[in-house]
Prior knowledge:
By secondary structure, this protein is of the alpha+beta class. It is built from 12 helices and 14 strands. The strands form 3 sheets. A 6-stranded mixed sheet has the order 4-5-3-2-14-13. The model has no long low-confidence stretch (mean pLDDT 92).
Amino acid sequence: MNDADSEKASIALPPARRRWAKAVRILSLVDLVVIVVATVLLWAVSERTWWGSIFTFLPRHPFLVAPVLLLIASIVADRWSIFVNFAGIAVVAGPLMGGHFAVASLRSDQRPEHALTLISCNMEYFQPGVEDVFREIAAKAPDVVAFQEAFGGWEFFPRYFPGWHMVHEDQFWIGSRFPVQRIDICSTGEFPHPTAISVRIDAPAGPFILHDVHLTTPRYGFLQVNWHSVLDGTGPRGLEAYNAHRASEAQKVRAYVDRVDGAVENGRLPVLVVGDFNTPSVSNLYRSAWPDFVNAFEASGLGFGYTAPCTHHRYWFNDVPWVRIDHILTDEHWAVSGFDVGHSLGSDHRLVRAQISLRK
């Protein structure tokens, strides 16, 4: 049907039907504009402003509601709007919500020779039910495991990692089937807790450095913002000051990583940086600190990869995470052949697993 035929068909519709079709078309176009603007703002101001920081960590699923409903309406009232709403859904599911499709994810069941299975998880102080996480980890048969907020847990380690080599200091626990040597621990001074620990692991394919990190949560900055504090300006100023410390912390951890990597004798070893970054990859804090590392999810992930928060919430669905803040990063020495997110509910975070191998 050409444009002339479409125009004739539109004229032939009853007046009420034409008004309905026009309304659906206008609403579809407006919704697409809103979605595009929200996406541009997210990528442009994510954690650069106080409100951009809040937007970064809000669930973005609600943006799907309007284009889905309008898609249904457009099938009945205005077929031209079908394409507009499909475009809206694609933008929301892709750059706005962080959905990703990597071709490598289709080959994730093909394990390369000498590949390592690496798991990272924030264990949230080993809350009741955490053994479900240990069972899931054991079922995935990892070679290296890195925990954050691993205070305690002594009863689980010998049971689930018998004969493993381990380093356990402060909140960090790193276990490996291969020999592990502690290198250093990082305290940035921005917040009162250590933010990273580094080890050398001597794997059969060659030694490498693993940095286990836990950057500070933005949650305490958000708690300063309410209607009253926004009106008098104290909330936004407090959040921006808090985020300035978080940004400085991220840069200091990156400088620490570079210092440790550069101090290796006989040349630089392959490097992995894993843990709870408390920033999604869209965040300016993340992009400014780790631009030259490969995110294993983006290299071989499928879907949204959300890892937190997984506990009960007053204004959200229970145990439905909406942000991806736990990452596995690799340098240029590694190839990523698989990535997935766990499903156990024994922690406030889902575990992340990557299948990696050293490039020849």
